[in-house]
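job 3f2a | input accepted
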Amino acid sequence: MSVPQKPTDLNNVPTEINPVLALKELVARLHREQHKIPDLLSSLGFALRSFNNLNQFLELIPLMATRVTEAEVGALILYKPNGQVKLEQLHCQDSNQQKIIRKALETAINVVTASLTSAQLVPVTATIDAQVSSQLGGDRQLFGTSILVKQAERGRLYVFSNNPQYNWTEERQKLVRLIADQTAVAIENGELTIELRKKERLDRELEIGAEIQLQLLPRQCPTIPGVSLAAFCQPANRVGGDYYDFIPTGHNGQKKLVSQSHRWTLVIGDVMGKGVPAGLIMTMTRGMLRGEVLNGHSPARILQHLNRVMYADLENSHRFVTLFCSEYDPDTQILTYSNAAHNPPLLWHAATKTIKRLDTLGMLIGLDAHNQYENAQVQLRSGDTIIYYTDGFTDAASQNGDRFDEENLIRAFGWACKHSLAPQSILEYLFDKVRQFIGTDSQNTDDMTLVVMQIH
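job 3f2a | predicted structure (456 res):
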C-alpha cells in the first residue's frame, strides 16, 4: 500500500529552501537600492538639461519622490517671494483620494498663511509640518524636507504612505532630500534665467537709448565762417549725462548746418549723475534749450527760462544740471556767454599766449526757481582757441587716486596751442593726456565731453 503524499502548498515553500530564496530576494533588493541614487541623479540631471520651463520640471518632483520611495503621495509646497504659500504640485496614485488630499493640504496652507505676521514672508517649518500632518490625519506615514535656495527656505517636499507598515528608512529619507536639493537647483536656475532675460532686455533698451542719444548729439560740427571746430563725447556708460550742441540762431528749424553770417549758439552741459536717468534729463534739457535759442534769447535769458521751466522736474528727481551757454557772431567775432555753474571754458589768447577762464555768476539749473544769470562778452581774434569741457576731464583719477584737475588741463591745453595744433589735433591730444593719466588699463568713471573752437 502506497503512502499518501502530502499535498503541495504553493504558498508554503518547503522550509529547506526558504533561506535561499530569502537571501536571493535580499540581494536583489540591495542591488535595487544600490542603483536608486545613481538612477535618480541621472533622471533628474536629464530633466534639468531637457526642460526649459521650470514648471515642467516641478511636475516631475512629487511623482519621482513617490516612485523611488515606494510611497503613494508626493506634494510640493513652495513659498513665493511675495509671501504666498502655494501647493505647486501633487501626485497621488489613487485618483479617488487625490481631491481629498488636495483639499486637506490647501486647508493646511490657508491656516498657516492666516497665521503669518506682516514681518514673515515664509511660514515656520514646524508650523506648516504640524498643520499638514493634522489635516492629513495621524495614521499616514509622513516625511517632509526643506527646499533650500541660497540657504533660504523656499518650500517643503512631502512624501507619505497610507500603509501603516511603511517605514521611513534612512535610505528613503536620503532620496527625498536629494530630490529636494535638485528641486532647489532647478528653482535657482529658473530665477537666474529670468534675471538673464531681464538683463538682456535692459541691455537692448540701453542700446536703443544710446543710439537715440547719439543721434541727438551733433553728427558733425557745423561750418561757421572763420571758425574751425572739433567735438567728441565719450560716455562712461552706454547712456550718458553729458551734452553739447551747435544751434543756429534764426534758422527757423532748418537742419542744414551751413551759415553765411548768422549767429550760432554753442552749449555744453552735464547732469549730476550718470546712466539712464541722467540721459533722460539731458534729452529733456536739449529740447527745451533748442526752443529757447530759436526764440532769439540771449544766453543769460535762455538759462533763466530753462531754470524756471525745469525746476519742478529736477527738484523731484533730486538731480541738477550745469550748463554753459554761449552765442558767437561771425561778423563781429564776439562771443557772448553765460554760465550755470558749469566748468568754465578755457580761452587761449594767441596774441598774448595766455589762458583765461570764461565764467559768470550763476547757480545750477534746478537748484532755485529764482536763480539769476548774467551775460559776459569777449572779443575773439585770429588764432584764439576755446575748449568747452565737462568735469569728466578734471575729475579723472589716476590709479593712486590723484585727480587730473584743471591745472593739468590748462597746462596740456597751453602746450597744444603753443605748438599751433588744429582743433581735431588738440581734442585728440587732450583725450590722450587724460587716458595716460588714469592708466591704459583703467576706464574713466564719468562722461567726458570736449568741444574745441578756433578762430581763423
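job 3f2a | The first strand starts at residue 73 and ends at 79.
job 3f2a | closed
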